[in-house]
Write a structure and sequence with these properties.
- The chain has 304 residues and is α/β, with parallel strands linked by helices.
- It folds into two domains: 166 residues, Glutaredoxin; 120 residues, Glutaredoxin, CATH 3.40.30.
- Helix content is 34%, strand content 22%.
- It contains eleven helices and 15 strands.
- It has a six-stranded mixed β-sheet, covered by helices on one side.
- A hairpin with a 5-residue loop joins strand 3 and strand 4.
- It is elongated and about 65 Å long.
Length: 304
């Protein structure tokens, strides 16, 4: 099975389990890249909402952009469509380039603090969320656009007083429990797919991921006075990915997946890789620039 098929298989696993209808989070205020405010609550009882999470470096997201714009034109005035950029390893310039390239006419939002993705338990992109007129989630799923088309047609016909059908979702059972030992602790936040998945779409970012992991390995080997730990984003990641990553980079210190994304969300990590230094549990330094000279100059304790 090639990497592309593995990627599809992994994401589709999380769309197979069904549960009872879920209500879309209340009091969600979004700001578009143009500065306009969107009150999602204002559509409840009147207009369905379709939210699509995406990233500029996500290949399948980019492939689906023509479909997204065609959907916007088809349902304009009938369904509120919002394109939500994940806000991870992205910036306004990259988002603007995608908007211009595909002439996107729907509202585009950057989930800067990751709050909406956290509320909707996102684990990868493309991620589709269709909300009916009652404000309940009628569909959640990854990758495929055909189920989205079916869900959009259905929510247009839904009577708000009726109970919606079950929504597709996934569950995360394990909880990430970050330990905070006394003294100095260095936490390396990383993505298991950064080196290979971004190799063609974002080569410089891919190379940075490789260099950063190699540098952290060197620093950890030299400095035993600091407790080192690696924390992987749960985006597109499972235990097997962690195992392969550790072997690929010969990682000798503990690494784990933030399975609930709570640690990463609380620490506001929006770029992978990022290195954070804690002193008795309190953050004293962070960087996403893994230039060894700059890093050692900024925090001499890393390079003792």
């Amino acid at each position: 099975m090639n990497l592309r098929n593995l990627y599809y298989f992994f994401l589709l696993l999380f769309s197979m389990e069904t549960f009872g209808a879920q209500t879309f989070p209340e009091h969600v205020m979004l700001e578009t890249v143009n500065g306009a405010q969107i009150d999602v609550d204002s559509y409840k009882g009147n207009t369905p909402v379709y939210i699509k999470f995406w990233a500029t470096w996500c290949r399948d997201c980019i492939k689906q952009m023509p479909h997204l714009e065609a959907t916007q034109k088809k349902y304009k005035g009938k369904i509120k469509i919002i394109a939500v950029n994940l806000g991870v390893n992205d910036d306004k310039k990259s988002v603007a380039e995608v908007i211009n390239k595909f002439k996107l006419s729907m509202d585009v939002v950057i989930d800067k603090d990751g709050e909406l993705a956290q509320k909707l338990n996102l684990i990868g992109t493309p991620y589709h969320v269709v909300v009916n007129k009652s404000g309940q989630i009628a569909y959640k799923g990854y990758i495929d656009t055909n189920p989205v088309d079916e869900a959009l047609q259905k929510v247009l016909l839904d009577n708000p007083k009726q109970t919606p059908h079950q929504a597709e979702t996934h569950s995360v059972n394990a909880e990430s429990k970050p330990n905070q030992p006394s003294g100095r602790q260095a936490i390396f936040y990383f993505a298991t797919w950064c080196d290979w998945y971004l190799k063609s779409s974002r080569p410089s970012m891919s190379q940075q991921c490789v260099q950063s992991q190699n540098l952290v390995n060197e620093l950890q080997a030299k400095n035993k006075a600091i407790a080192w730990k690696g924390v992987a984003t749960r985006l597109w990641t499972n235990e097997e990915d962690i195992r392969k990553y550790a072997l690929r980079f010969n990682v000798s210190y503990p690494i784990e997946i933030d399975t609930t994304n709570q640690q990463i969300f609380d620490s506001q990590i929006r770029r992978f890789p990022t290195l954070v230094l804690l002193d008795n549990g309190k953050e004293v330094f962070r960087t996403s620039d893994f230039d060894e000279t700059k890093l050692c100059k900024a925090r001499m304790e890393f390079c003792k």
